[in-house]
Give the backbone structure.
Amino acid sequence: MMLAHGVVRLDCDRRPYKLVLDNGNTLAARAIIISTGAQYNKPRIPNLEKFEGQGIYYGATYMESQLCEHEDIVVVGGGNSAGQAAVFLSQTASKVHMLVRSDQLSDTMSRYLIQRIEQNPTIELHFKTEIVDLEGDTHLERVTWRSKTGGETSTIEIRHVFIMAGASPRTDWLSGCLALDNKGFILTGRDMDAATETPVWPLARLPQMLETSLPGVFAVGDVRSGNVKRVAAAVGEGSIAISLVHRALAEL
């Protein structure tokens, strides 16, 4: 019987690289595909997990926009991802309630995006407001939120809530080895050109599109900077990475 062990560190000084396991053992590898995903930042709301995929979403794409066409919806968050989701979903939803925990939108949000939100009649901003309860049978049916200013609660018939509170990649074990963006996601391919602290690429050829700052090490899925955070995209990147691995191994 083979027991599963987690990787706690990557030794990247020389190739083959070494993956250090949580039991102290090491695995040598000439090529690596990193697909460790990301952890969505989830507010503490009763029944949140019960309705994930049944009214609770962590991404806003065309598919989700069609699910909530002509309905009132909620977007949770005050950052760029929440603002972009609110503007995008306002094209199909009847009403977008944007719940922000602080008393303003994020300081990092562009002024242009803030203006689009404030001038959009479909978007209603609720500052210092957070969800306190979710109700429904097999699908979300009602949402209760509370104002932190006056303590008032409101319960509204809403079937779709978009949690846009960001995500955290699981990249602590890669510290000092790979180029990461300012949120800790792995930079790959041309995205490394824009990074100010990217390690020097050691080969004459350019990195392949899913290749990290280490030759022969690839990143796919949610852990990769710029990934669209969809299962189909991660699967596609994984299949592409396999062919890129073969190409990288042929160089050795």
About this structure: The chain has two domains: 30-39+169-250, 49-163. The longest helix spans residues 231-250. The chain has four helices and 15 strands. The two ends are 33 Å apart (CA to CA).
